[in-house]
Specification:
Nucleotidyltransferase, domain 5; 41% helix; alpha/beta; 315 residues
């Protein structure tokens, strides 16, 4: 339904008043001029549409595209439907087109000839392998502590949070370090093995230099890090995810996002000892004892305890 504006109602009242009392009195009553009254009286045919404002858009322009240019653009667009504005303009220029790129853009917008982008194939994730028991596979990653959390003596320093998550129970172990290196990774691994009450079969990490030299150039790529050497000594398999694909380490990546929301956004640290203490308390109280939906609203510590108490043990 077309909208009847206040201007249209004003014009109808003006016309009716002029028909009853005359044009001069109508112009004085509605504070306008006689020409305005005559114009709308001539235009009014009894319908609301006749009282609408007409388009002020010009019917033609002295600099508008010629028929030859329009034909060239249509032919080129039909043969190059996916070319962007710049590429399309350059191709037209090579065929004698003289207009500016802004003029071409306005014409393409007006005629709905903007490039059509081909649809990207929809990403279908592969079903992730589910773990059958605790310790079957751990995800490990490193998070740098935000500089905004460091105050007083700790300001300007760099602290790191090493995180390990059991994929079956979501039980998490974290530890604070002052450097991110293969030595720190090796120390964290040894502490993790002692803290977890069951054997660990596999460790999954990204391709960071603190874990592996796989992406290094030259002979360094063939040299195992002390982290990898220690894994081999402990009989733990090391699984590396695909490069530049952090979603394959999704559980530990998501836990780091939750750390930003629950921990780092509300805490400050005065020293490394202060950071290490607060991190340990937070992980024990707020993470391992916090119920989550993937575990049927049980906490990771409850799931791990239930498996040790009622599950099948293995060697």
């Amino acid at each position: 339904m077309a909208i009847i504006t206040q201007d249209m109602r004003f014009r109808l009242a003006l016309i009716k008043y002029a028909d009853k009392y005359g044009v001069s009195k109508a112009a004085a009553r509605y504070k306008t001029n006689r020409q305005y009254v005559y114009r709308w009286k001539r235009r009014y045919d009894g319908s609301w549409d006749s009282l609408r404002d007409r388009s002020r858009r010009p019917h033609h322009h002295p600099n508008q595209h010629t028929e030859e240019e329009i034909k060239l653009i249509n032919n080129m667009r039909r043969r190059n439907p996916h070319d962007g504005l710049v590429v399309f303009w350059v191709k037209l220029r090579q065929r004698g087109y003289k207009r500016s790129i802004t003029g071409l853009y306005r014409f393409l917008r007006k005629k709905s000839l903007m490039p059509t982008k081909p649809k990207k194939p929809k990403y279908i994730p592969k079903p992730y392998e589910k773990m059958s028991y605790p310790g079957q596979r751990f995800q490990i990653d490193v998070k740098a502590v935000p500089s905004s959390c460091l105050v007083n003596e700790a300001k300007g320093q760099k602290f790191y949070q090493y995180t390990a998550i059991d994929e079956y129970s979501r039980w998490r172990y974290v530890e604070a370090f002052e450097e991110r290196s293969t030595y720190s990774s090796m120390q964290f691994l040894e502490h993790l093995v002692k803290a977890f009450p069951l054997p660990i079969e596999c460790i999954q990490t990204d391709n960071g230099m603190e874990f592996t030299k796989r992406l290094s150039s030259g002979n360094k790529a063939k040299t195992p890090t002390i982290f990898e050497v220690r894994l081999k000594q402990l009989g733990i398999r090391h699984k590396l995810i695909r490069p530049f694909t952090p979603r394959h380490n999704g559980k530990v990546e998501r836990s780091h996002r939750k750390d930003n929301e629950r921990f780092y956004s509300t805490h400050t640290f005065y020293s490394f000892e202060d950071f290490s203490k607060q991190l340990t308390i937070y992980n024990k109280r707020e993470y391992n004892r916090f119920p989550i939906r993937p575990l049927g609203w049980k906490s990771p510590q409850e799931v791990l305890n239930d498996f040790i108490k009622y599950g099948v043990t293995y060697v």
